[in-house]
Amino acid sequence: MITAFDILLIGAVILIMLAGFAWRRMLWRKGREENRSGDLTGLAGYLIGQQLILKRRFAGVAHLFLFWGIVVFLLVIILAQFPMIIPATAARILSLGLEILGAVMLAGIIFFIIRRRQFKYISADKISPQKVLFPIIILMIILITGFLAAGTRMSIVPSDKLWVSPIGWGLSNILPGSPLLMQIMIRCHFLAVLLFLACLPFTFMRHLAAGTLNVYYRRKGNRGKLRVADLDDGYVGAKTVDDFTWKQLLDVEACVSCGRCAENCPALISGKPLSPRKIVQDISWQMEQARSNGSWLADAISGEEIWSCTTCMACVEHCPIFVEPLDKIIDIRRYQVLGCGNLPPEAKTMIRDLEIFGDVQGKGVAHRTDWALGREVSLLFDRNRATDILLWIGCSGAFHPRYRETSRSMVKLLHAGGVDFAILGKHELCCGDPARRLGEERLFQELARKNIKRFNQYRFQKIVTLCPHCFNTLKNEYPDFGGEYQVMHATEFVLDLIKAKRITPKYPVGQALSVHDPCYLGRINQIFEPIRDVCRAVPGIEIRELPRNREYGFCCGGGGGRMWLHESLGRHINQIRAEEAAKAGAELVGTACPYCLTMLEDGIAALEREKPPKVMDVVEIVASSLGAEF
Ligand code: SF4
Ligand code: SF4
Questions:
Q1: Quick one: which ligand is closest to 253's CA?
Q2: pLDDT over 70 (residue 1)
Q3: Could you tell me the distance, in angstroms and rounded to a whole number, from the CA of residue 29 to the centre of ligand 2?
Q4: Does the beta carbon of 283 sit less than 6 angstroms from any atom of ligand 2?
Q5: Same domain, 131 and 176
Q6: In this structure, is residue 308 part of a structural domain?
Q7: Is 130 within the bounds of a domain?
């Protein structure tokens, strides 16, 4: 029987809960403005299916039952406040259903408690899992007291419909028929429900609201695109939490500290002092504290952490509620570079070369076509007609001694396929990806605008490029600066040539091949199959997948400007990947990125094996299978 005091208590709890959520909303809403529209259909699909959460089978199923259990019980509690008549049979079935749901939820809670206790810390990732236990234990108390109340009631008033409450019946056999005990259980159950509701905004359970909102406002379209920094507006990156947008702060509010980002982070796995989960939790802590004490992000997040990131996006891919640790890291890098001039010394030479020469090697535009000498490659500015394909070479393809071979192989394939193509030659500058990922947004925007100006001077149907970093930048980032083009990665283009029978690989490359998915092609742009299909088209190749493949692919360690930074902390990421390839028994590692190619070659060389696997770009593999006549 509900008393007036109970009603007062319920009112107070609702007030506390609403005040708590209003306070939390004020914290993240104070971020800078950002245009985001919600997606109700996407949210509904996510809540019903929970596919991202279900990527982890056991934890996902446990979460599914807990989520729906809480929703159903809250609905039942609300509906029970309205007078309604339910037919006896329906009421019994409902009672049985709730009991089964309660039992499954209890199993899920026990699973989570065991899992959290077994949580392995890796290196920098020292967030205490206990912080999330409090609301889970309250939830457990709610369920247990509910069962005990049902059991005591059945031992006082035995029922002939035992199937309606099988757990209650089981407990009634051991519980005394004590009305006092039943009252105590009911009160404990009631108070625990109130405590759970009152605590919702103040514990990690607030993700029920914040996570839902984060899914609703999640990024649409390609996620390989970095946020444009409005430099004209005086923005120089994130010095304090106030420099993040409200959506970035909603991200950290939604984080449940599950650690999936950390478990897949190559920097953390290789022993570097970076954990994406810690970054998000540090920002969350500062969001609560910093406004009163004016802390800088750099007080909590060290330079070693932010410069360890390879921008591989594994953290973004694996976060079950669309939190993006990477965009915070980039904004902190931006402040270090644009606001403080704190670029790591090793990267300074590369950035200076970009500023002066327009390429990462510092060779200059006059040498952009040296690789193509004697290869019948036409220059777009030399011809006064349009071209079908603008072959974007990129700095590595033009200057890196090893990757120049891949550029030449690509030219061989294009000639063999009778493709009308041309290059920009001295009119091509670096796409700007290394500068942007290192936080040098000003230089990136300058390069992007210059390249777009050049593109707009010529007529071509599509751009094809070998480098996934150039591909991502031209395809996904240049549109923000007015440059919208049809851009294809070389693997997709070569696959089309093979499918159209314009080229036919015929000489066998009889080797066990493992595919190394470049992060910027695979995980970031979701292009996984063309690289495999191209390899399958080559006679004699047997694909032997690496244990970490496709969206779980492990980074080579070269992205995010890391190609130009010393790897002095932890293990070398490229050597970890090289070991995986060697263990998989690969004789050949096929990839499709200049960074991956050179990083893996270096990693494999460091293994000092008698018969090391060879690393080739898939374009080179196809070219070698065409034979010498082309
Ligand atoms: S982008 Fe990659 S390296 Fe950077 S924090 Fe995320 S998982 Fe780690
Ligand atoms: S950022 Fe996402 S994946 Fe990482 S701990 Fe938070 S919720 Fe989990």
A1: 2
A2: no
A3: 20
A4: no
A5: yes
A6: no
A7: yes
Cα separation, 630 vs 626, whole angstroms: 7
Q: Whose CA is nearest to atom 8 of ligand 2?
A: 258
Work out which ligand 1 atom sits closest to the CA atom of 555: 2
Q: Average pLDDT, whole number, for the chain?
A: 92
Domain closes at, from 444, 467, 497: 497
Which residue range is the domain that position 608 belongs to?
A: 512-626
Rounded Cα distance between 56 and 85, Å, is 41
* Residue whose CA is at the smallest distance from ligand 1 atom 2: 312
Ligand nearest to the CA of 561: 1
pTM: 0.91
Task: Among 435, 465, 497, give the residue marking a domain's end.
Answer: 497
Residue 122 confidence (pLDDT) above 80 = no
How many Cα atoms are found within 13 Å in the side-chain-facing hemisphere of 574?
22
Lowest mean per-residue pLDDT among 105-109, 418-422, 487-491: 105-109
Shared-domain flag, residues 209 and 171: yes
Give, as one character, the DSSP assignment of residue 157: S
Q: In this predicted model, what pLDDT tens digit does every residue of 579-602 receive, in sequence order?
A: 999 999 999 999 999 999 999 999
Residues 37 and 166 in one domain: yes
Confidence check: pLDDT of 466 > 90 = yes
Domain annotation covers residue 132: yes
Residues 558 and 607 in one domain: yes
φ, ψ for residue 30, nearest 5 deg: -75, -5
Q: Ligand 2 pocket, 210 CB below 6 A?
A: no
In the numeric block, which tokens belong to residue 279? 């970054």
In whole angstroms, what is the distance from residue 195 CA to residue 208 CA? 16
Per-residue pLDDT at 118: 66
| Percent of the chain's residues with pLDDT above 70 | 96
Site to substitute for ligand 2 among 251, 279, 321, most atoms within 8 A of C-beta: 321
Nearest-10 Cα torsion for 424, 428, 433, 436: -150
Output the residue whose Cα is nearest ligand 1's atom 8.
265
pLDDT grade, residue 180 (50/70/90)? very high
Instruction: DSSP letter for 614, please.
Output: E
State which of 265, 278, 316, 324 you would mutate to test the pocket of ligand 1, scoring each by most atoms of that ligand within 8 A of its C-beta. 265
> Residue 277 CA to chain centroid, in angstroms?
12
54 with 200, same domain: the answer is yes
The three-class DSSP label of residue 460 is strand
238 Cα to the center of ligand 1, angstroms: 18
Which string of DSSP letters, residue by residue, matches 281-301?
HHHHHHHHHHHHH---HHHHS
Q: How many domains does the chain have?
A: 3
223 assigned to some structural domain? no
Same domain, 66 and 124: yes
CATH code assigned at 545? 3.40.50
Q: Are residues 37 and 130 in the same domain?
A: yes
Please, which residues have CB within 8 angstroms of residue 216's CB and are 6 or more apart in sequence? 38, 39, 40, 42, 43
Q: How confident is the model at residue 396 (pLDDT cuts 50, 70, 90)?
A: very high
The reply to whether 53 and 201 lie within a common domain is yes
